[in-house]
Structures are given as structure tokens and as C-alpha cells.
């Protein structure tokens, strides 16, 4: 039986979105079993906010567990009773902001025995530890039980209403045994409405669905917590303001004062976040509103709301508004009441007064309406009044005919008016309110959406099987309508806008937000429909059957989901590019072509775009996690908000957003792609084998490893920029698994190859989740071009053996593993690199540049210029030419930096800083401070007139745009390639000497970045031995940039050249920008070209062409749409490029007589080379 399965304890964390920040929050048992397929999910009824499992209709129990899980996971229960699955069928819980919930209907006096379980997104079952929970039920009633994960010994208390002869009586608590029920209490004619938990779930508006408040009270009952200890700024203002603000309008006034005041301007983001959180808690009842004796009609609330709305619109319309501010502002709008004319009138909402004086209803109901609704609304309206009205409406409509039809109709009308005031109407009601403000075309689009929505709801009632197409139709209609509303809101709010126009703009804003919420529902249903077909396995099987077109609905869904994110303000240009790619790859012509051949290339291209979409989703997640947790924790603690609400605030925001559904759809499709292409999610950058303790870190930085981690370490890294030192976390790092893609030629990738450290990336969240149970345990790590294995390793090296492993290179059939135990804080064994210092003012032609006087990079550029003529006569056996060009250039040799320092009387200070940087420890920030001083000193230096004149004579035009590149004596050497380590500054001119001189000084200063200093320490180079020459070349404006490895870096196949390409300047490839390049494997002998990956960098780095444009060293970052890039769209062009690069690479490899790393670019039909160096 399920309850007797063997459990293995260990940490478990599965993330659906990287950077979610919820790892390691629990230690649980993890179990996989062969019979999991027979554990089926019970059929459930899912309403707007509740989940009900039907058994015999007697005792109703609402189970709620106060526990958060990771993204992609869910709670369920298994137990002895039929309604808990009979230990065979897991019963799912539904996620709400108050916890995970399920409603059961059990037999009278039944004894339930059950346990909570967690279902991971990979299908694993995680059981809570300890004995089974036991719950004894009474004969009748409706109850709630709140439990906590892994606390199986806690006493289970039934809280709710006991039922006697169909009538509910006082609340009872049952702990093991049922208590004696009390007699019914008389109903007071002036009693306040108390809303049972189970009744709230039947209510319709968002207020009621999310309501977590208790009964209403008057001013004498108000109690709260206002602990302002340690607070400052907006949080302090809110807490102190709320202390004196009992009712809703006063709380709104606190918000208005803060937003429009000086603090709201100086600390705008902090103010917006605190306001959004505060209003959210008010609207969910977590912060209660009470009467305080000062009576104001709802028009007071409306006037305050209008002023808040105007300020929010002003912020949204500013050119410099940040993404964070926009996202938070969108959270505030739904929390404000309406302020159209009928609500700003002197006596609004008068219908309830007439209802309270009707003669066709019982006296006690009349009194209840008068005191609980009419008087309360006209004295001090608040969100609790809408909840109370909904509860009363539910009661008077429960038994048809009990009350007069005219009364019920009138009460429903009042209810609609009240919903309108609280902006709590349905999406349809909101959209219908736009009628007077839209033109004929927009009205037609709106009506089409409502028709599609109604049609979908009709199909739901009829139980239609083929639901995907109508869901897509509705989502498409929604997207068209939302795009029009968003466009209309772009123009901003005019300063002279009338009150009527402002009120209508609020309706537009809330309608647009409502459409966003409904798109979440549609996307969720679409994903469920795909899962019902078989999920990722079904998609992969359709490809095998030649039915690639079956993917089109999923790709169209993802395209529209991404479009929703753009309409919400999340990187609009990026969203448009992703949408265009998805639609292009799913176009009928493309699909039919791939149905014939090369489905692997089709799948890899899709993978690139879908990974790009998932990266966008992670941007939102990271943003939310940066915005909320700290502010929420402080404000929640100060106001006494329940801990679970505070802890799950950011998670709730993410789960309720469209981005959550986009991420789920991305995960589904990526899993299907991996099944299609046969990949495992790993990308090997450096093959090798090693053993060590598996440790997860956020980044590869000093101090990220625990002090106890002394032996060999395998890093599981959450995030890397690509410019880190592979051993920055510790010299005992022997392997790295990075949890996202990375260009192979980033500095980090190159250093891994130089250090012979096994290095892989993995974009499969399920693979990463499977590694986490191995954390802090010894593992064996094997990485090759064919597979990656990470498994438990029970015989790690003993401490007594560690000294013998120092500086030892271990080779076996799977590749090398390098273990170095010396600390980075210590200076390694010094190496001397001699240079030849040129006289002051010297400028060299590239033909005069040598490694001793100008560095290897400049010297090789001179050699390439000579080889370019020879290459014109060479071609491959297939007739592909080896022709290439080299841009003109000159070199500022070694010694020029020191001459500048001497001229400015800074050489003595420079030498003193160099002496300090040699031994500065990593800890305490001393190394960072010394490096910063060095860079600042060098960056202040100026070029001599002699150097500027030398550059301008004989070759380089004063008006031509140039690039200033590093050519250090510690780069482009065997074992020290330093790719991307030092600066290159494009877009400068000799005619602008000040900006040109600053660019040269910036290149000099890059010799002393923290990572450059650490790199030399690892290589054993003294800091005083490092010197920098500067290579000045004509700036090219490439369509594509590339790096070639003339021998495959993965499997060391000498017949295969591997090319990495990116749009625009080559800095994208070396800088470690998130994303992947095009990766081609090109056979140098038979001309065959295989595509290994497609590019998905979000942006290209470019420079504006034209002599009149400014040349200040700045670059442009432009979003790339790969649907218009021939290298992605045209397989013939891709093959031609691969063959041309293979021919050039083979030519240079033959000349230098060793494998080469080659950098260059493509402009039209021409290939330019800018560098060649020994391949590590």
C-alpha cells in the first residue's frame, strides 16, 4: 500500500521558474515507484475558487494545509476513506492565497486516516513523515481543518458549524471527540453579518473569492498591531497612517497623501510597492476596516480614488518610468473604487434605502438590511460591505419563492451597482461599460470577443470534446481587443481631462487588466487540454508520425501568451520578436517543409525560441522577487499580517500572473523537444571526469562556498554572466554544472577549457531537480560529447590524499580532471613574460607589430594581413574559396601607458598600487578597493599628441570610425587566451581626440579589473609583469560575427570545425550574454555542415554607421527577430556559411601548424578576420 512505501529523507526542491527563491525550504521524503501510473486523480468539480470532491452527502470537511511548495508542484492527500482516495487515488488540493484546499464530503461519524503528499512536476510523490493523521467526524455539519506539513502529531481540530435538524448552530471545536452542541441563539435584528468560510467560496466577485477577513465590527472593537520598530520611509508612513485610519476612506487618504507627497516622489518604487501591498491586504480583509464615528458617504471614497488614479496614470505615462514601477502600478488599480458621476454625487447608492423600507419582506430582514447595509454604507463604506451583500444575496436567492420576485430583482440591481462601485464586476460587465467611449470598429472587435467567450461557455456546458480550437479563437479575440485598449491607454491622461473622461479611462484600464486575467484562465485551460492529449509525449509522437503541424496550436498559444506579457509592459520589443519567431516557425509552409525532412533542425530552432520565451518569463519572476519580499516582510510584520500570507506574497503574485502559464507551456514544449531530438538538456562546454562534493551556489564568486568545503567540489550554479573565473569560488572546484545556457566562447567557458575543469550547462529543470537530492553528497561527474553522468560516489579522496593531488593533472578515457588546492588569495608560482618597450610617442604599422613589442593579438593581425593575399588563391575540394579580408589598423605598443603615467607624475603611485595588488587578500574587499584605485588612476591618463599624429598618418582616416582593442602580453598565449577578459571600445574617431583618448585609457585600465587580476594569479603571472598595448583598427559593421574552433572542442574531432555565430558585433559571443549562438559543426574535408544549435540572444550589439554619427564609444543594443535572419530561416545559406568558414579555418590551421580559435565577421559576401590564436 502507498502508506507503507520505503521513504528516503533528503532535501527536495523543484523549480518551474529559475530564480524563484524557494529552494531548500523543507526536508522531506522522496519516493519513486513503479506503480505510480496506477495512482489516478479523482474526478473533481472546480469552481471559481474552490475544489470539491464528492462522496456521500453528509459531513462536509474543508481541509487546508498551511505550507508552500515549489513552482510546478502541488499538494494532494491519500487516505483510507473513499473520499480520500482509499490509499489508491490521490486527491488533489487547490491552491489559494490562504493555503492549499480541498473540500470532502464524508460519511457520518466516519474515521478518516490520511496523509498529505506533494506531487512534483516530474511525477514524483513526496510523503510527509510520521504516523498517519486521524480525524473522527461527527454525524452532521460543515467544518474546516487546518494542518501543517510534516506535523503529523499535531491535534486535528474541526472548526465550523454543527448541524441539528438542518439548522446550523454555534461554532464548535472538535479535537478527537465531538463537543456538546449548544442550542440555537436568537437572531438580533441589528446583528452584523458573519460569513462562514464555506459560504464565501460560493460568492462571485474577486473581493469575496479572496476575502480572508473576519466579521465586521464597530470602532469599539478595533484592534491591531502597528509596530514601527526599524521602519522608515513609505512603510513607516503607512503604518503610522493606518494606526489613525480605522475606516476605508481614511486608509485611502493615507495612500493618496503618500503617493502625491514628497516621499512618493523621492522614493517612488518603494512607495508604490508598499501601497500595492497595503491595499491588497485591505481588499482581502487581512487589514480590517472599522467605523470610527466620523461618517462620510461613498462619494468621499470616490473623490480620493480619482486623485490616486490620476497620480498613477501620471507615473505610467512618464518616459522614464521603470518596468518595476509599471508592474506595481498595475497591481494598485484593481484596489481602487470607482468614481464615475453616480458615485461622486452627494448621495450615492440610494437604492438600498428604498429596499430597506419595502413592505414585502420580513421585519427582521428589513432591519438587517437597514443596519448592516444601508446605514453602514452611508456612514463608512468598505470592502466588507460587498462581501456582506453577496452573502445576503446568496441567502435570499437560495430557496426560490421564499421572498418576493420584485424584492429579489431590486436587490440584485443594487448588488450590481455596488459591484460597480467597488470595481468588482465581471469582465463582461466591465467591457459592456465601455460602450459610450469606443468607435464602431472597436465595438465590433469587443462584440466578437464576447461572442467567442459565450460560445466557449456554451461548449463547456455541453461537454464538447474538442475544446482547443474554441479556446484559441477566444484567446485570439481577447488579444485583438486588449491590444486596442492598451494602445488607447498609451497616450496618457491629459492635464485638462474632465472628470467624466477620467472615470471612463479607469474603465478602460480595468477592462485591459481584466482581459489579462482572463487570458491566464484561457492559457491554463489550453495547457490542461494538451495534457489531456498526452502532454509532451503526445507532441513528440506526432513528430515521429510526420505530423509536425499538430504543434501549431501550442505554438500559437505560446505566441499569444508572450504577446500578453508585452501588453502588460514586460519588454514589448522582445515579446514582439518572440511572437514573430513562433508564428514564423509554425507557418504552414515551414511546417510542411519539415514534415519531409530535418525535423531535428526544426526542433532545435523551436528550442531556441522557446528558451528565449522562458528566459523572458524568468525576467518577470526575478523582478517580482526583487520587488516584493523585503518590503512585504517588513510591512507585514509591522501590521501583524499572518506569516503565511507574508511568506507567500511574491509566490502568489507569480502564480496568478500570465507569465506562470507561459512558463508552464514552455516547459511542456521543451520537454517534447528533448524527446524529439534525443537530448538530455545538457550542453558540454568542457569534457572531463571528476569527483567531489556537490554544492549549489547562486554565483561563482569568492565566499559562495561554505568554509567547511575543503575537499574537491562540484558546483551546481544558478546563474553566471560568463565573465567569471571558473575557480573564483575556490581553487578546489573540479567541475561545474550551470543551470542555464552559456556561449562556449564566453570568458568562463574558455577558462574552464584552460583549467581543464569539466563544465556543462543544463536548461532542463527536471534534470536539475533530480540533482538536488544529491546536494552536499560526494558525486562522480562525467561529461562527454555523448552524455553527462552525475551519480553518487561513495569513495571520495581522503584528506590524507589531498596533498598528493595538488597540481596533478589526471587523464583517462573520459577526459581530464584538474584539482588545484592552492588558495586564490595566495600568489601562485611566478612566470616571467618579457616585453620590448618602445620609445615615447611610437605608433607601429601592423606589419611592424610583434609579440614582444605589441602583444600577440596585434602581431597576429599583422600576419593575417599578409596571409589574406595568399588565401585569395586557395579553395577547398568542393570549390569553396578561403578568401578573407583584414581591416586596416595600427598598434600603440607596450610602454605607452607607462609613459602617460610618468608624464602625469602618477608612476610612483601606480607602482605602489601594483605592489599592493600582488598580495591583497580576497576577503574583506581589500582586493576590490585596490583594483578600483588602479583602474581609476590609469583611466585618467591622456594620449600624447605624437601618438594621435602617428595614428592619423598613413592609413587611418581621422573621420573614420575605429575600434580600440586590447593586446596585452598576458592574452592570446597558450594556456592564457583571456577571451573577453580585457576591454574593446568600438565607435571612436581620431577627429574626436578626447573621447578617443578616453577609450585607449579605458583599455589600459581593463588590465586591472578584479577578474583580470585573479586570472593572472591563477596563471602564476605577477601583476607587475602584465602590460597592455592597444590595437586600433577600422570599425566594421558586421551582419554576423563568429568564433571558429578548428578542432571540435567537444569530442576533439580533428576533421570537424565548430563555428559560433551571433548577430552584430562579436562582443555578444565573448561577454557571456544570456542565450545561445548559432553553433555549426563543419567537416573540413567533405563540406558537410550540421546545425548544433540556433541563436536566441535577445539583443545584438551594434554601432550606427555613418561618419556624421557621434563617436563616443557608445554602442546600441537592438532586439533581434530571428524570423528575419537568413541563418535561422534558410538552411541553404546556413550550409554555405559553414562551408566557407570551414575552408578559412582549415587554411589558417595549416599555416600556423596547430588548432586555432579564430574571430571575425561577415559583411555581405565578405568574410573579415580580426584575430587568430592557439586553441586551448
What would your notes on this structure say?
Belongs to the PEP-utilizing enzyme family. Keywords: ATP-binding, Carbohydrate metabolism, Kinase, Magnesium, Metal-binding, Nucleotide-binding, Transferase. It contains 39 helices and 37 strands. It is globular. It starts with 7 loop residues before the first strand and ends with a strand. Strands 3, 4, 5, 8, 9, 13, 14 and 15 form an 8-stranded mixed sheet that branches. Strands 1, 2, 6, 7, 10, 11 and 12 form a 7-stranded antiparallel sheet that branches. Strands 16-20-19-18-17-21-22 form a 7-stranded mixed sheet. The protein is α+β, with helices and mostly antiparallel strands. The model is unreliable at 1-56, 161-203, 217-222 and 796-830 (pLDDT under 50).
Structural features:
1176 residues, alpha+beta, seven-stranded antiparallel beta sheet, globular, disordered N terminus
Amino acid at each position: 500500500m502507498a502508506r507503507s512505501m520505503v521513504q528516503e529523507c533528503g532535501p527536495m526542491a523543484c523549480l518551474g521558474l529559475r530564480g524563484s527563491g524557494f529552494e531548500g525550504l523543507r526536508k522531506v521524503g522522496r519516493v519513486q515507484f513503479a506503480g505510480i501510473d496506477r495512482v489516478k486523480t479523482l474526478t473533481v468539480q472546480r469552481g471559481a475558487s474552490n475544489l470539491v470532491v464528492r462522496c456521500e452527502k453528509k459531513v462536509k470537511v474543508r481541509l487546508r494545509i498551511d505550507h508552500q511548495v515549489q513552482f510546478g508542484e502541488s499538494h494532494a492527500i491519500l487516505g483510507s476513506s473513499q473520499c480520500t482516495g482509499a490509499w489508491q487515488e490521490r486527491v488533489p488540493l487547490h491552491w489559494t492565497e490562504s493555503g492549499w484546499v480541498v473540500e470532502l464530503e464524508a460519511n457520518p461519524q466516519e474515521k478518516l486516516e490520511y496523509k498529505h503528499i506533494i506531487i512534483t512536476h516530474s511525477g514524483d510523490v513526496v510523503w510527509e513523515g510520521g504516523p498517519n493523521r486521524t480525524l473522527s467526524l461527527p454525524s452532521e455539519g460543515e467544518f474546516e481543518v487546518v494542518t501543517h506539513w510534516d506535523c503529523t502529531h499535531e491535534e486535528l481540530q474541526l472548526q465550523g458549524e454543527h448541524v441539528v435538524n438542518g439548522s446550523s448552530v454555534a461554532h464548535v471545536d472538535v479535537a478527537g471527540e465531538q463537543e456538546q452542541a449548544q442550542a440555537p441563539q436568537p437572531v438580533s435584528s441589528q446583528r452584523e453579518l458573519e460569513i462562514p468560510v464555506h459560504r464565501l467560496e460560493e460568492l462571485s466577485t474577486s473581493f469575496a473569492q479572496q476575502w480572508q477577513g473576519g466579521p465586521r465590527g464597530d470602532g469599539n472593537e478595533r484592534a491591531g498591531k502597528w509596530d514601527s520598530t526599524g521602519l522608515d520611509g513609505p512603510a513607516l508612513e503607512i503604518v503610522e497612517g493606518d494606526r489613525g485610519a480605522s475606516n476605508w476612506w481614511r486608509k485611502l487618504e493615507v495612500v493618496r497623501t503618500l503617493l502625491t507627497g514628497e516621499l512618493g516622489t523621492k522614493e517612488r518604487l518603494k512607495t508604490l510597492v508598499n501601497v500595492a501591498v497595503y491595499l491588497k491586504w485591505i481588499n482581502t480583509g487581512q487589514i480590517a476596516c472599522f467605523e470610527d464615528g466620523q461618517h462620510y458617504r461613498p462619494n468621499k471614497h470616490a473623490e480620493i480614488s480619482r486623485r490616486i488614479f490620476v497620480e498613477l496614470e501620471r507615473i505610467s505615462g512618464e518616459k522614464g518610468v521603470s518596468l518595476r514601477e509599471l508592474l506595481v502600478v498595475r497591481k494598485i488599480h484593481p484596489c481602487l473604487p470607482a468614481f464615475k458621476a453616480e458615485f461622486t454625487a452627494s448621495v450615492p447608492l440610494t437604492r438600498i434605502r428604498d429596499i430597506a423600507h419595502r413592505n414585502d419582506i420580513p421585519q427582521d430582514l428589513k432591519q438587517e438590511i437597514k443596519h448592516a447595509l444601508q446605514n453602514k454604507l452611508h456612514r463608512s463604506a468598505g470592502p466588507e460591505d460587498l462581501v456582506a451583500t453577496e452573502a445576503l444575496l446568496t441567502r435570499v436567492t437560495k430557496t426560490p419563492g421564499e421572498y418576493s420576485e420584485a424584492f429579489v430583482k431590486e436587490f440584485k440591481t443594487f448588488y450590481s451597482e455596488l459591484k460597480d462601485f467597488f470595481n468588482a464586476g465581471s469582465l463582461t460587465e466591465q467591457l459592456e461599460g465601455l460602450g459610450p467611449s469606443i468607435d464602431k470598429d472597436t465595438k465590433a472587435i469587443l462584440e466578437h470577443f464576447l461572442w467567442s467567450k459565450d460560445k466557449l461557455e456554451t461548449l463547456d456546458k455541453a461537454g464538447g470534446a474538442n475544446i482547443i480550437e474554441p479556446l484559441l479563437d477566444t484567446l485570439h479575440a481577447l488579444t485583438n481587443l486588449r491590444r486596442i485598449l492598451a494602445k488607447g491607454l498609451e497616450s496618457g491622461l491629459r492635464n485638462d481631462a474632465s472628470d467624466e473622461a477620467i472615470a471612463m479611462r479607469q474603465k478602460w484600464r480595468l477592462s485591459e487588466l481584466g482581459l489579462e486575467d482572463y487570458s491566464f484562465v484561457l492559457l491554463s485551460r489550453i495547457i490542461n487540454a494538451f495534457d489531456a492529449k498526452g502532454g509532451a509525449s503526445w507532441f513528440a509522437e506526432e513528430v515521429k508520425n510526420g505530423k509536425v503541424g499538430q504543434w501549431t496550436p501550442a505554438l500559437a498559444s505560446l505566441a499569444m501568451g508572450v504577446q500578453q506579457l508585452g501588453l502588460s509592459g514586460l519588454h514589448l520589443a522582445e515579446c514582439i520578436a518572440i511572437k514573430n519567431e513562433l508564428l514564423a516557425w509554425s507557418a504552414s509552409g515551414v511546417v510542411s517543409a519539415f514534415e519531409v525532412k530535418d525535423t531535428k533542425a526544426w526542433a532545435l530552432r523551436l528550442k531556441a525560441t522557446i528558451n528565449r520565451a522562458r528566459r523572458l518569463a524568468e525576467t518577470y519572476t526575478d523582478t517580482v522577487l526583487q520587488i516584493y519580499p523585503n518590503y512585504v516582510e517588513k510591512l507585514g510584520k509591522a501590521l501583524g499580517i499572518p506569516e503565511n500570507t507574508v511568506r507567500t506574497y511574491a509566490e502568489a503574485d507569480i502564480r496568478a500572473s500570465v507569465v506562470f502559464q507561459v512558463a508552464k507551456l514552455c516547459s511542456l514544449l521543451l520537454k517534447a523537444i528533448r524527446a524529439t531530438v534525443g537530448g538530455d538538456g545538457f550542453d558540454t562546454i568542457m569534457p572531463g571526469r571528476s569527483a567531489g562534493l556537490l554544492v549549489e551556489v547562486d554565483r561563482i564568486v569568492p565566499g559562495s562556498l561554505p568554509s567547511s568545503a575543503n575537499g574537491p567540489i562540484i558546483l551546481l550554479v544558478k546563474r553566471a554572466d560568463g565573465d567569471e573565473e571558473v575557480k573564483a569560488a575556490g581553487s578546489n572546484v573540479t567541475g561545474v554544472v550551470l543551470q542555464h545556457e552559456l556561449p562556449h566562447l564566453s570568458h568562463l567557458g574558455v577558462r574552464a577549457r584552460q583549467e581543464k575543469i569539466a563544465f556543462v550547462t543544463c536548461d532542463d529543470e527536471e534534470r536539475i531537480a533530480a540533482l538536488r537530492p544529491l546536494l552536499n553528497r560526494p558525486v562522480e561527474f562525467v561529461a562527454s560529447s555523448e552524455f553527462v553522468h552525475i551519480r553518487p560516489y561513495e569513495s571520495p579522496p581522503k584528506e590524507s590524499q589531498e596533498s598528493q593531488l595538488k597540481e596533478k593533472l589526471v587523464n583517462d578515457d573520459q577526459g581530464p580532471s584538474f584539482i588545484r588546492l592552492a588558495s586564490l588569495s595566495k600568489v601562485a608560482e611566478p612566470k616571467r613574460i618579457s616585453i620590448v618597450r618602445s620609445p615615447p610617442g611610437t605608433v607601429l604599422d601592423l606589419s611592424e607589430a610583434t609579440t614582444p613589442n605589441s602583444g600577440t593579438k596585434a602581431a597576429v593581425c599583422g600576419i593575417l594581413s599578409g596571409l589574406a593575399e595568399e588565401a585569395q588563391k586557395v579553395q577547398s575540394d568542393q570549390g569553396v574559396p578561403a578568401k578573407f579580408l583584414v581591416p586596416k589598423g595600427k598598434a600603440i605598443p607596450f610602454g605607452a601607458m607607462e609613459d602617460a603615467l610618468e608624464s602625469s607624475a602618477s608612476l610612483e603611485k601606480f607602482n605602489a598600487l601594483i605592489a599592493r595588488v600582488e598580495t591583497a587578500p580576497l576577503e574583506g574587499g581589500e582586493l576590490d578597493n585596490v583594483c578600483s584605485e588602479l583602474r581609476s588612476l590609469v583611466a585618467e591618463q591622456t594620449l600624447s599628441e605624437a601618438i594621435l599624429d602617428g595614428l592619423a598618418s598613413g592609413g587611418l582616416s581621422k573621420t573614420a570610425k575605429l575600434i580600440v582593442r586590447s593586446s596585452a602580453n598576458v592574452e592570446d598565449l597558450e594556456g592564457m587566451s583571456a577571451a573577453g577578459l580585457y576591454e574593446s571600445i568600438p565607435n571612436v574617431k581620431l577627429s574626436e581626440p578626447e573621447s578617443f583618448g578616453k577609450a585607449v585609457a579605458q583599455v589600459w585600465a581593463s588590465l586591472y579589473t578584479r577578474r583580470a587580476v585573479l586570472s593572472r594569479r591563477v596563471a602564476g603571472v605577477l601583476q607587475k609583469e602584465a602590460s597592455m598595448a592597444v590595437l586600433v583598427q577600422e570599425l566594421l559593421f558586421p551582419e554576423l560575427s563568429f568564433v571558429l574552433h578548428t578542432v571540435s572542442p567537444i569530442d576533439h574531432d580533428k576533421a570537424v570545425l565548430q563555428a559560433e555565430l551571433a548577430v552584430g558585433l562579436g562582443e555578444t559571443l565573448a561577454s557571456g550574454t544570456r542565450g545561445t549562438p548559432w553553433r555549426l559543426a563543419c567537416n573540413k574535408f567533405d563540406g558537410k555542415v550540421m546545425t548544433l544549435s540556433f541563436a536566441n540572444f535577445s539583443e545584438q550589439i551594434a554601432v550606427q554607421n555613418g561618419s556624421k554619427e557621434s563617436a563616443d564609444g557608445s554602442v546600441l543594443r537592438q532586439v533581434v527577430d530571428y524570423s528575419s535572419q537568413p541563418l535561422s530561416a534558410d538552411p541553404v545559406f546556413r550550409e554555405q556559411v559553414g562551408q566557407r568558414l570551414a575552408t578559412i579555418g582549415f587554411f589558417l590551421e595549416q599555416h600556423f601548424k596547430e588548432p586555432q580559435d579564430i574571430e571575425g565577421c561577415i559583411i555581405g559576401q565578405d568574410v573579415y578576420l580580426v584575430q587568430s590564436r592557439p586553441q586551448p
